[in-house]
Amino acid sequence: MQRFLSLAVLFAVLLIPVAGFGASKYVVLGFEGPIGPVSDRYISNGLDEADKLGADFVLLKLDTPGGLDDAMRSIVKKIMASEIPVVGYVYPVGARAASAGVFIMLATHVSAMAPGTNMGAAHPVNLGGQQPDSVMMGKIENDAVAFIVSIAEARGRDVEWAERAVRESVSASSSQALDLGLIDYVASSPGELIEMLDGHKVEMPEGEVVLETTNAEEIEIGLRWFEKLLRVLSNPNLIYVLMMIGIYGVIAWVQNPGSIFPGVIGLISLIFAFYGLQVLPINYAGLALIGLSVLLFILEVKITSYGMLTVGGVVSLILGTLLMFQFTPKAFGISWPFILIVAGVMIGLVVLIIVLAVRTHTRKPTTGQKGMVDQVGEARSDLSPEGSVYVRGEYWTGVSADPAIKIKKGDKVKVVEMDGMVLKVRKVP
User: Fold this and answer.
1) 99 carries an active-site annotation
2) Dihedral sign, CA of 125, 131, 133, 139?
3) Residues 132 and 206 placed together within one structural domain of the fold
4) Measured between alpha carbons, how far apart are the two ends of the chain, in Å?
5) Is 139 a catalytic residue?
6) Same structural domain for residues 74 and 98?
7) Are residues 221 and 241 in the same domain?
8) If pLDDT is split at 50, 70 and 90, which confidence band does 18 have?
9) Active-site residue (options: 139, 228, 330, 412)
10) Ramachandran bin of 380, using left for φ above 0, alpha for ψ from -120 to 50, beta for the remaining angles
11) Contact 24, 212 (CB under 8 A)
C-alpha cells in the first residue's frame, strides 16, 4: 500500500510540468494612430512573430481615424491569410475604428469593442494618388464597396451595413455594432474580453478552433525602434521642417565651404526628410515648387528686385506645400497654421539676410586707404611741413593739409587723405 501511494505521488509530480507546458498563450498587438506603412509593418511583423511563438491567437487593440488605402489592404490580406485567429478590439474607451479601421475590424476572426467606442465612416477619399473626378470617384467607391462586402461575407458580418459604411459613411456605437452582428463582444477591458473568449469557436481554413483563455499566457509585442522612428518621420509637419532645414543648411554650406556644421546638419535633415517622404503619397510638382521658392529667396539676395522675388518665393513655398501633401488623407495632412509659421520664418530669414547685405554695402570701410580717412591720431613731432604721427597704433609720415596752421608735437590730428604711405592730416581743435 505504501509503495502504491509513493508511485501515485511521483506520477502526480511528473504531470505538473506537462500540464503547465500545454497552457495556451496569446500575443497582444496595440496600435494607435493613422493606418500607414508603420501600422502595416508592425501588424504584419507581429502576426509573423505570433506564428513563430506558437500563439493560440492574437489580440489586436486598435484606435485609428483611418489612413492609407494601400496599407489597409495589406493589413487585411495579412489577417485574412493568418493561420491563427486574430481578435480585433477597439480600445480604450473613446477610441474608434474609422475609415480604413472598419475594413481591418471586419477582417478579424473575432471582433469586440469597448463601451464608448465607435466604428464606421469608411467612404474613400482621394485613394489612388490623383485628384479624382466624379467618374473616377465612382470607380474608387465601387471598388471599396466590393472589397468590404467580400470581407463581411467571409466573416459572416452584416453586408448591408458594410456597404452603407462606404457609400453613406454610416457609423455605429459599440452597442449598435453588437446588435447588428458586426462584433461579437462588448468588453470594458482586455482582461474582461479574454474571459469572454474562453470557449469561443472560430472557423479556420484547417477546421474549427476553440479558444482556451483560462490562465493563458500573455505576450505583448510593441513597436520596434525603427518602427517608432518611421512613425515619427511619417508626420508631414516634421518632414516639412526637416526639408527646410536641410535645403538651407546645404545652401549655407555651398556658399561658405568652410562652415561644415550647417552642411552636416542639412544633409542629415534631408536624409530623414526623404526617408519620411517615401512612405507618403506626395505630389512631386509641389516638391519642385518648394525648390523654386528656395531659388527665388537666394536670387533676392543677389539681385535687386525690390521684394518681388521674395513675394514669388513665398507664394511658391505655400502652393508647393499644399500641392505636395494634396493626396494624403486628413490624418496625414499638414496644417495651415504650420505652413504660415514656416513661411513667416522663411520671410524673416530672407529679410534678415537682405538687411545684413545692405548694411555691409553701406558700411564705412575700415581697411585700406579709405579706412584711414577720418581716423584720429597724435603728432609725435612738429609737422614743418612733415613729421611723425601716430594713428591706429602705428607711426606714419604725416603732412599738414593746411600749411598755414602749425601742428606741434602732442597735438591731436585727423586724417583727411592718404597719399601712398603719407597721411595728410588736419589739427583737431
Assistant:
1) yes
2) negative
3) yes
4) 132
5) yes
6) yes
7) no
8) very low
9) 139
10) alpha
11) yes
Model's pTM, two decimal places? 0.67
Specify if 423 maps to a domain: yes
Q: Are residues 352 and 421 part of one domain? A: no
**Dist CA 65 CA 222 (whole Å):** 20
Q: Which range, 20-29, 55-64, 220-229, 373-382, is most confident?
A: 55-64
d(CA 244, CA 324): 14
Q: Are residues 146 and 177 in the same domain?
A: yes
Reported as a single tens digit per residue, the pLDDT across 288-317 is 888 887 788 777 667 766 667 777 877 887
C-alpha cell at 45: 511583423
Asked if residue 113 belongs to a domain, the reply is yes
Region for 267 from its dihedrals, namely left if φ exceeds 0, alpha if ψ lies in -120 to 50, beta otherwise: alpha
Alpha helices in 204-259 (DSSP H): 225-233, 236-255
Domain boundary among 317, 336, 362: 362
Total of domains in the chain: 3
Parent domain of 138: 22-225
Cβ atoms of residues 43 and 29 within 8 Å: yes
10 Å CB burial of residue 61 (0-12, 13-18, 19+) is buried
Cα distances (angstroms) measured from residue 33 to each of 30, 40, 162: 10, 12, 22
Active-site option among 99, 174, 234, 269: 99
168 & 255 share domain: no
Question: Which residues are 407's β-sheet partners?
Answer: 383
